[in-house]
Design a protein that fits this description.
The complex is a heterodimer of chains A (163) and B (284). Chain A is α+β, with helices and mostly antiparallel strands and 163 residues long. Helix content of chain A is 39%, strand content 15%. Chain A has two domains: 76 residues, Ubiquitin-like (UB roll), CATH 3.10.20; 71 residues, Orthogonal Bundle (DNA polymerase, domain 1), CATH 1.10.150. Chain A has six helices and five strands, in the order ββαβββααααα. A five-stranded mixed β-sheet of chain A has the order 2-1-5-3-4, sandwiched between helices. The longest helix of chain A is centred in the C-terminal third of the chain and has 22 residues. Chain A is globular. In chain B, α9 packs antiparallel against α10 and α10 crosses α11. By secondary structure, chain B is of the alpha+beta class. Chain B has three domains: 46 residues, Uridine Diphospho-n-acetylenolpyruvylglucosamine Reductase, domain 2; 113 residues, 2-Layer Sandwich (Uridine Diphospho-n-acetylenolpyruvylglucosamine Reductase, domain 3); 106 residues, 2-Layer Sandwich (Enolase-like, domain 1), CATH 3.30.390. Chain B contains eleven helices and 14 strands. The chains are: A alpha+beta (163), B alpha+beta (284).
């Protein structure tokens, strides 16, 4: 099958890739764009390790063809922070031991980022419900939830201070 | 898990999508949110030489509420259903059911149209649509027709929709009275072991009318007329609920699978149906 050009805005930059329609977005992100933050976990839409943000939605990028992302705005974990300038959520996961092996972490943080956009001041229950599409095989959920709640508090106090 | 090669189509209107369907027939399938079809393609259980992505067809999106008539475009996502306060005010059972579907990521992508049209007995919206007595609008080369949800499902993955038709809209009257969608599932993201939608209208201390339908307890969603009849005119007391549950259990035909043997499913179904009826009554 012939390849086609897909143009997407990825982490604020316009990127063009040549793909076959059957290529899944996660592989195009990882192998062509070298964005290896989103991970391939279960590859069956369950675990959430491949979560990226697409047009304001948290999406499992193993369950989307790259051609569907033509014209889309995508944010991966690489677009949220950098080693020199961690995002508040990344800082909070580090501070509160929100990761053990780290494999699920990029998906967790990318999903948590969208959750806090939609609900800046969630209860613990809302965090658990909102994070239900991400599995941590180390079962480190307590500290993941704690990290997200702490990040929300941090973001909220920073925005209050700014006002 | 990479599917076999296919050609990707991305029409901007229904006519464009229908043209591809007409040209390729069985070899073409429409793609809504993709969270049922893409996994099947990856497993190579669905062979789709021509994939028609409907994401750019604006006419298939949106929620319209006119008086007590609600019309929902097939490409409206579960997330959009949940987020709509107007829909919640008019038909709160939709949000209650949609929140029990899959997980947040899947709900951002999964659509009501895909959920009802796929014909998967595990999907929740078909059962709910039985309960609401919804109508599905189908568009094909010969025009548009409307089918009652209660006569749409023929067998697992088999529906009244022709291969060359697209399900474009879902419509129903805003339900009155109490409502509940109860679902037992093994874990987040799983399909129901048993689920039940119930609507009950109250008049004084009595049930004026009721509607009871079930998910994943037969090869198609099941509307139980007998359960509704058992409730109508009763005070929805224990005896009436028991009679309604017994009637509903007569109408289902679960099969053994990794969610359990038939006996277990009948047991779970009885509890779920009973809870749905009692909760709907408590809100009536």
């Amino acid at each position: 099958m012939t390849k086609q050009i897909v143009e997407m805005m990825v982490n604020g930059e316009t990127r063009e890739v040549m793909v076959e329609p059957r290529e899944l977005l996660i592989y195009v992100l990882r192998e062509q764009l070298r964005l290896t933050g989103p991970h391939v976990g279960c590859e069956t839409s369950h675990c959430g390790a491949c979560t990226v943000e697409i047009n304001g939605k948290s999406v499992k990028s193993c369950t989307m063809f790259a051609v569907q992302a033509q014209g889309a705005e995508i944010t991966t974990i690489e677009g949220l922070g950098s080693p020199d300038g961690l995002h508040v959520l990344q800082e909070s996961f580090k501070e509160h031991h929100g990761l053990q092996c780290g494999y699920c972490t990029p998906g967790m943080i990318t999903r948590a980022h969208r959750l806090l956009q939609e609900n800046p001041n969630p209860t613990e229950e809302e965090v658990r419900f909102g994070m239900a599409g991400n599995i941590c095989r180390c079962t480190g959920y307590q500290n993941i939830v704690k990290s997200i709640l702490a990040a929300a508090a941090e973001i909220n106090s920073a925005s209050e201070a700014a006002q | 898990m990479i599917p076999p090669s296919f050609e990707y189509h991305r029409p901007t209107d229904v006519a464009g999508a229908l043209a591809v369907l007409a040209e390729h027939g069985d070899d073409a399938r429409v793609l809504a949110g993709g969270h049922s079809l893409i996994p099947m393609m990856k497993l190579r259980m669905a062979d789709v030489p021509h994939l028609i992505d409907l994401q750019d067809v604006a006419a298939l999106k949106g929620i319209e509420i006119a008086g007590d008539q609600i019309t929902i475009g097939a490409m409206t996502t579960q997330h959009e259903l949940i987020a709509s306060d107007a829909l919640h005010a008019a038909a709160p059972i939709i949000r209650e059911a949609a929140l029990q579907i899959a997980d947040p990521q899947v709900r951002y992508m999964g659509t009501i149209g895909g959920n009802v049209a796929n014909g998967d007995p595990g999907n929740d919206m078909p059962g709910l649509m039985q309960c609401l007595d919804a109508r599905f609008t189908l568009e094909g080369a010969d025009g548009t027709r409307t089918v009652a949800a209660r006569s749409f499902y023929e067998a697992a993955y088999m529906t009244d929709r022709d291969d060359e038709e697209i399900l474009t809209h879902i419509s129903f009257a805003a339900p009155r009275g109490g409502y509940a969608y109860e679902k037992q599932k093994r874990k987040i993201g799983d399909y129901a072991t048993a689920a039940c939608a119930a609507l009950i209208e109250r008049e004084g201390d009595k049930v004026a009318s009721a509607s009871v339908a079930m998910t994943n307890l037969s090869d198609i969603p099941v509307f139980s007329e007998a359960a509704a009849a058992a409730l109508a005119g009763s005070a929805c007391d224990d005896a009436a609920v028991k009679a309604a549950v017994a009637a509903a259990l007569e109408d289902i035909d679960p099969t053994e699978d990794n969610r359990g043997p038939v006996e277990f499913k009948m047991h779970v179904a009885g509890i779920i149906i009973s809870r749905a009826i009692q909760r709907a009554w408590s809100r009536a």
